[in-house]
């Protein structure tokens, strides 16, 4: 085997076989033509890429019913502003005195630290989360996360790692639920909900764009959540961005008739906030047009988690 001077290209040569004159060579020793093939360069392994087991730990297979403070945020399609809404909700709960963690489980979009403008802050990312036994100690994980406006944030960094295994996501969510009053999970379009037991059984909030096509997608998304056995979600309406004046918008009453459910909102788009996010400045304030809907969602969350905290507090 010899290599020519062209990088990553090798040339395999077969030396001619010798035999006495008049004696034919065996079929398996007939000289073959030279074969040329391409050998791709070895892919360097990033430090975060580790060898993982394909089998889920036994402890991750059961639903942990002791944590009733997990809130899963999803939407029927991308680009609706779900991550911004999740962050504003976590910020609002923190301002109310609740310890809150925000988990980026949207492994299609991700980059929540970029959206919040804290990508340069030190702290743990999902590529560094390891749960080989399906368990993570909550206080230790909480301490290692980056902090934005008092909110503990676990972002996903798609450029540094492949998608985490589902039991690693579940272990991280359980750990943060142990260490915080509320855990807000930005699950994007819900790709993980079916496989992560604790997300499937958590409180659900669905963002629905208040347009004809947006409501159709929200209805389909709600049917998918129902098929997975998720509890009835709370729905918040979001006005479409970039719509022509006086066109494309569906009112909340009409949306409630179509979805046969109560629709909170609407959440109104704000050009200043959109510009800040696009420029990497993060969310510097909650726009006035969104505060009412965000506060109603925060009220619903506090009413949901209150029984758990009341049960754990001593009765003096």
Automatic annotation (TrEMBL):
One annotated GO molecular function: ATP binding
Alphabetized, the UniProt keywords read: ATP-binding, Nucleotide-binding
Which InterPro entries does the protein's record reference?
P-loop_NTPase, YlxH/NBP35
Where is the stretch described as Disordered?
1-26
A Pfam family the protein falls into: ParA
Please tell me whether the keyword Nucleotide-binding is annotated for this protein.
yes
What protein name does the entry list?
Chromosome partitioning ATPase
Native source species: Bifidobacterium myosotis
